Amino acid sequence: MKIEKLHHVAIICSDYQKSKKFYTGILGFAIDKEIYREERKSYKLDLSLNGQYLIELFSFPKPPSRPSRPEARGLRHIAFGVSNLSETIDYLKSKKIAVEEVRIDEFTNKQFTFIADPDDLPIEFYEL
């Protein structure tokens, strides 16, 4: 078996319009396709970044909560590479997004930080 690349990450949100605005309006993802599945009472939003399909955003009626912090088992976070972490932080703060303190990767000495999406999903920004 040979895996070629990461195809996408699926996220189930609690408030579709709020999450759609966050991922498109704040993080800058482009909408590739948006469909409403009447039989499931569910939206499916395909999102891309720089022409690469990355996120499927789903809504479902009353999805159960999933523990995220502290360090719960399972998928931990999504990480995006950025060229300038300071500029990224300034931008996020201008959009009223709470940004954690900058950390240093002990192995690469690169800077990174975290924010949370509208459902408290951890999102990392890692300076390339």
Automatic annotation (TrEMBL):
GO molecular function: dioxygenase activity; metal ion binding
Matches recorded under InterPro entries: Fosfomycin_Res_Enzymes (IPR051332), Glyas_Bleomycin-R_OHBP_Dase (IPR029068), Glyas_Fos-R_dOase_dom (IPR004360), VOC_core (IPR037523), YwkD-like_dom (IPR037478)
Keywords associated with the record: Dioxygenase, Metal-binding, Oxidoreductase
PROSITE patterns attached to this UniProt entry: VOC
One Pfam assignment: Glyoxalase
Residues of the VOC domain: 5-128
Keyword Plastid included in the entry's annotation: no
Protein name: Glyoxalase/bleomycin resistance protein/dioxygenase
Source organism: Cyclobacterium marinum (strain ATCC 25205 / DSM 745 / LMG 13164 / NCIMB 1802) (Flectobacillus marinus)
High-level lineage: Bacteria, Pseudomonadati, Bacteroidota, Cytophagia, Cytophagales
